[in-house]
Design goal:
The protein has about 100 residues and is mainly alpha-helical. The chain is built from 4 helices and 2 strands, in the order H-H-H-E-E-H.
Length: about 100
Amino acid sequence: MRTAPFTLRQLECFVAVCDAGSLTAAARSLSTTQPTVSKLIAALESSLGVRLLERGAARAMLTDEGLRFLESARRLLDGAATAGGSLISRASRAEAI
């Protein structure tokens, strides 16, 4: 089985930064620290071999590659949530029997 070059947590952080506009705001929304978000984004960028964000003093802005990747990241996270919800639903129905 082939593994993805990134984790769902990295994707979650990337999407949160895009939505929040900064690493600090994303960290707050994820109940973690800014250095943790920064490290996860750096690892994601390293594994993909592209820069996804331009980091400024107060804001993080998407690069062209980041903009293209954002849509895929959202789809992957939605798919993971759907798969997890489906599994939980089936388990709940099995327990009810």
